[in-house]
Every structure is written in structure tokens, then in C-alpha cells.
Amino acid sequence: xxxxxxxxxxxxxxxxxxxxxxxxxxxxxxxxxxxxxxxxxxxxxxxxxxxxxxxxxxxxxxxxxxxxxxxxxxxxxxxxxxxxxxxxxxxxxxxxxxxxxxxxxxxxxxxxxxxxxxxxxxxxxxxxxxxxxxxxxxxxxxxxxxxxxxxxxxxxxxxxxxxxxxxxxxxxxxxxxxxxxxxxxxxxxxxxxxxxxxxxxxxxxxxxxxxxxxxxxxxxxxx
Length: 223
Description:
Blueprint: H1 4-10, H2 27-41, H3 49-58, E1 67-71, H4 79-85, E2 89-94, H5 97-106, E3 111-114, E4 126-131, H6 140-152, E5 154-164, E6 169-175, E7 178-184, H7 187-196, E8 199-208, E9 214-221
Helix pairs in contact: 2-5
Keywords: Methyltransferase, Transferase
GO molecular function: methyltransferase activity
Protein name: Type 12 methyltransferase
């Protein structure tokens, strides 16, 4: 939910003792408090478009409409809105009830669940799964566990799109003036975790200058 340039450029990496009160468990309460301000100020310039178009180009279409699961969907703008405008059947998931309420206001005809992505089991699969600026709020151990969850929700040949940091790190960013935790594993570990789940990396661009310097991964499940 927070742009990696904010994480990497605006704030220094902090020593572990300063991270004690800024933990992943503070993320959802922070977004509960700041949902309206975040939705109001979140960039709608759609710099993500190049990667969303790549996702749609690679994802299968296993049913009448291409189905996409948006994990950490926030208020639905601009990513879910862009996909819906392209006749994609979107399902949103967010752990902050205030964000889910805004998503329902912004996209009243789109299905959304108030659920934590950690350990999620919707008992269905999707042609693509997105975790854009959301997954990197999790602890490193929770990130490691998420790859099984990603794979579990992908149809054969389904595509995963997510953002991370460019290196193994823990940093503190901010949303609407409140501090928020971010973490990243190293690129080699992300690759290994995806390989374990049958995911083949299609594209990886650290600090992509075409995408507001986000570090972006796209992978495909074997099928």
C-alpha cells in the first residue's frame, strides 16, 4: 500500500531496537484509522498500468471472465478499478474493515472479503493473484508462509504479481503521518520460495523506473 520509493529513499534503515514498537501487527490498526486519508491521497496516476497489462497478457482465462484475486486491495482505487474496467472479475481481500467499507463504496458490484491474507483459504482458484504494496507489510516469516497461500489460490498457469523491497531489509515508512513496518527478503530467497511452490519467475525488475521505482515480481504457476 505504500510506495517503495517512500520506503527506500525517504527513510533510513533503522537498527532492530527501534523497530520494537513498529511491528507488522500494527499495520491493520493503522490502516483502520487512516483508511479515508489513504484513499484520498493514494496516487491515482496508475503508474502500475504497465505491470497490470503484463499480468493480463500472461494470465490464463479459465472461465468466461479472467478472475483476479487482489490481496491487500485497500479501497480499490486505482488497481481493482482498472481491472474491472477491463472486464476482469475481481475479488478483493483486505484485513482492515475500514478499507473494505471504502472498497464497497468505490466498487459496489465487486466482491470483497474482510480477511487477513495470512493463512487465507477462499476454497477457490483464480487466474491471477496480486499483492501490490501489501505483502511487504508482513513479517519475514509471514512472507515466507504466503507463497503456499499464493499457489493455493492460483489456477494452473495462473500468474502471481507482487511488490517487495530490492534487498533483504526491514524499514519504517509512513501512511498519513503514522509509522508503518515494511520488510523484504532477498531476491534469491524469493526465487527459492517460489520454486518450492511450483512458481516460475517470468519477470523481476528491482526499483523499476517505469513504475515509480517499485520492485516488482511476476511469476507463473506450473500447470
